[in-house]
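Trying the structure run again after the queue cleared.
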Amino acid sequence: MSSDLAWMTIEQVAPLIAAREVSPRELVDVLLGRIQHVGPRLNAFITVDAGGARAAAARAEAEIAAGSYRGPLHGVPIALKDNIWTAGLRTTAGSRILGEFVPIDDATIVRRLKQAGAIVIGKSNMSEFAYGATNSNPHYGPTRNPWDLGRITGGSSGGSAAAVAGGCAYGAIGTDTGGSVRIPAALCGVMALKPTFGRVSCHGTLPLVPSYDHVGPIARSPADLAMLLRALAGHDVRDPTTSTATVPDWPQQLRRGPRAFRLGRPREYFFERLAPEVTAAMDHVMRTFELARCSVDEVRLPDLHWAVNRCTDFALAEATSVHRRLGFFPARAMEYGDGVRRRLEQGAVVGADAYDAAAEAKRVIDRMFETALTHVDAILAPTTPVTATSIGESSVAIDGAQEPVRQALIRLNRPANITGLPSITVPCGSVRGVLPIGLQLIAPPFAEARLLQLARLYLECRDQRPERPAALMTSD
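Done. Tokens:
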């Protein structure tokens, strides 16, 4: 059974732990062995905390044996994106500047995960300072897609997604400023949920664009996402942007029977300039929902193009402001990778007029989505317009025209960050059974339960594909 343990979901392995049929130490050893086996090929981790994980597993095992079982995350090993503070454990943010930084305190979400009994097995690779979409890190090397080792994972939480997809963690936590949990989850064939802005504390995560930053889970099933989100969410006095709204029991809500949903297919923006295989997958998605007695109707987002483009200036300026406050830019500019340095330089010259125009554009986007979501339960769209591109590829051909890879990957994800609306990505097919395609669903504020229910409904209706990534199957 041990060879299959790495591929189980949290929902499957938690009852085994609770019944003491499998021990946390066994799980940690299985995953550490797997990390050693496939780690050099995936490059999913910057730091693996074998000693800390084994010690935490021993504590969890003793607590469970003594009757102090904390719940479904107790004794479950997970990965953390390396911009999330971990007391006593190096946190580099994928950068050279913070290469030896060791926090003295845990981020709020790390404290909450540990309170739930989760075990941190390591810190996952990421785009430098979370300011990238491919996870081709200039300092720690690229993370490789478990489905095709010559292709990107997407970013900036690419190591987190690769760890889950590659059987090296049961779940992972990432941050999402322009799609950074959803993009890599979609390209790696797993799931991710970006919650409503303020639902999860960002205290102790290195900021990128604080107005758009979110923290969210990556996992293999809707139930796993629900369990992780339940542990993460809630008001935090150390993060004034967090909501005081009650944290629902998402796992229990997910167990409720599915119902007919009203879905909206945007006429503008989301279905423009897609690779043919993505268009075909989305057609299949809509047919699947319709067969499940859901309606799929057109919704309008008429001004989204220009408004999203205007918000680029806001993000550039705020990111540069963060790095100035940290004292990194421009004082240590030459220690950044070329791509991040260029974007920080762009943000430094954004004027007040452009910043004000971006703020107005955000208000326009908020109103458009509010109007559209009064008529439907969720908006349906692709997560990315293309599948994973080759490592080092700077542009991709879509609909006969070249587009920068970074721009293509974040294009369909940015609206949910700008608005702060919750969004989920679900595997919805693949190209030749190899390169995964992601379905994105966007819901009204604090409607995470609806997204989880929709994800479960879709996955129950669609044909299943192999759980284990093709590029790793021969080595398992």
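Residues 433 and 465 are 8 Å apart (CA to CA). Worth checking whether this holds up in the mutant runs.
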